[in-house]
Design goal:
single chain; alpha/beta; binds pyridoxal-5'-phosphate; binds zinc ion
Length: 418
């Protein structure tokens, strides 16, 4: 039984029923937020959720807005590992460091949490068609869940979307168009003007439930830590749906009394395209368009035009006592190599949180004794060109299939002690 009550508009506070395919507020165009009655959660819910392992993310269904009785569209998302990384922590000077590895989700990115919920919701509401705009990972995730649910979707892929992500979207069977634009704001404006012809929107925040599923990140992390919150969570920020959803999850756990603290949320963006970082530095509650999405290898977080001024993500960062930092592509490449040294391949946007740690420590934004969780939001396998750019340009030496040559090669790696 879900304890979700209704949608409420961010701007005019009008309530809307959860049983309608709403996207934004019909009265004022504001973003809709799901409200819950946390007091209605059964007393033994936590224990039952802990026992429900195989259902992964859907263990937390009572804290998600899917109506009772509706079918879960699932590919086995959630319950990703929280990896303790003592060696990497030592290299970076962090007290204790964990990587929450969402790169091993069904389509290789954390987007699957959101789309499992949003596609389930769409099916429950009778929507047979949907639309999203994506730099790649969201499109691939929507395409996969739409295939699973047998609904028809169009993915508007940003012209920067790389060939691997584009192929994945097409392989899952979505309709795809590539969109050229001078800014993401231009695309969002065009989408707003589709009017009554518009199919159900899966664009983050315009779709009112995608970010709700990101709360499950927070639940899983605190559960793995023995119902404790870390001191700091460092999260890459594109639209901010991931950071905002995680913050909402941490806040709920605190409100439920399951944890005694909430983490400071630190948002990370590429220095070539960092509107949220600039707004945080200015103490602003509204972020205007800034930067150039083509100026960085971190394609998944290169959103130059925050939706509705990024107010939600800015509020989450401020309330948590956190901040936002920008990282260069060189810092991101170094971080990709460091994370690979722990056995994890991260795409550039996913390595950005680790790239930010050095600067956060140097600037006192993280103290050396603190416990930090960095989220690995997407797999490095989906950006093979950038992955290859983190290793030496010279290709490996070629050998003949000859014992003497192989022995000589081994001796060059491990010289024989004399
Ligand atoms: C989408 C994405 C992000 C950014 O998520 P938002 O919710 O848009 O802020 C970060 N990393 C990866 C790998 C992504 O696919
Ligand atoms: Zn409104």
């Amino acid at each position: 039984m879900t304890v979700a009550l209704e949608y409420v508009c961010d701007d005019c506070a009008r309530p809307f029923g959860l049983d309608r395919p709403e996207t934004t507020c019909k009265a004022c165009g504001g973003l809709l937020e799901v409200r819950y009655d946390l007091d209605a959660l059964p007393r033994d819910f936590r224990e039952r959720a802990a026992a429900g392992r195989p259902m992964a993310m859907w263990r937390w269904r009572a804290l998600l807005p899917l109506p009772d009785g509706a079918v879960q569209v699932s590919l086995g998302e959630g319950d990703t590992p929280l990896l303790r990384c003592d060696r990497l922590a030592g290299q970076l000077g962090v007290g204790k460091l964990w990587l929450k590895n969402d790169a091993q989700m069904p389509t290789g990115s954390f987007k699957d949490r959101g789309f499992s919920l949003a596609v389930s919701m769409a099916v429950a509401l009778g929507a047979r068609r949907g639309l999203t705009y994506s730099s790649g990972n969201a499109g691939a995730s929507l395409a996969a869940y739409a295939a699973r649910a047998n609904i028809d979707v169009v993915v508007l892929a940003d012209y920067l979307c790389n060939p691997v992500k584009l192929a994945a979207i097409r392989a899952y069977g979505a309709h795809v168009f590539r969109v050229r634009s001078r800014s993401t704001a231009e695309v969002f404006k065009a989408l707003e003007h589709l009017g009554s012809e518009a199919p159900y929107s899966f664009v983050n925040f315009l779709n009112p439930v995608r970010h709700e599923a990101m709360k499950t990140y927070a639940y899983e992390i605190c559960e793995a830590l023995g119902w404790r919150a870390p001191d700091v969570m460092v999260h890459p920020v594109g639209t901010g749906g991931g950071l905002y959803g995680a913050w909402k999850g941490f806040s709920e756990l605190y409100e439920l009394g399951w944890t005694e603290t909430v983490p400071r949320m630190i948002g990370v963006q590429p220095s070539g395209c960092a509107p949220i970082v600039m707004a945080v530095a200015d103490g602003a509650s509204f972020a205007g368009p800034a930067g150039d999405p083509s100026a960085t290898i971190a394609q998944s977080i290169a959103g130059g035009s925050p939706i509705k001024g990024g107010r939600r993500v800015l509020a989450a960062i401020r309330r948590s006592g956190g901040t936002a930092v920008a990282v260069s592509d060189d810092e991101i490449r170094r971080a990709m190599a460091l994370v690979a040294g722990e056995g994890v391949l991260a795409e550039p946007s996913a390595a950005a949180p680790v790239a930010a740690l050095g600067r956060c420590l140097a600037e006192g934004k993280i103290r050396p004794n603190e416990e930090v969780v960095c989220v690995i939001t997407g797999s490095g396998l989906k950006q093979p060109t950038e992955l290859a750019s983190t290793v030496p340009a010279a290709p490996p030496l070629e050998l003949n299939a000859d014992a003497a040559e192989i022995a000589q090669a081994l001796a060059s790696v491990w010289p024989v002690a004399t």
